[in-house]
Amino acid sequence: MLDGTPTTRRRDLPAEDVLVVGDRASHDGAAVDLGITTLLVPPLQSPHERRLQRVLDLVLPGAVLSPS
Question: Could you tell me if residue 55 is inside a domain?
Answer without folding.
Answer: yes
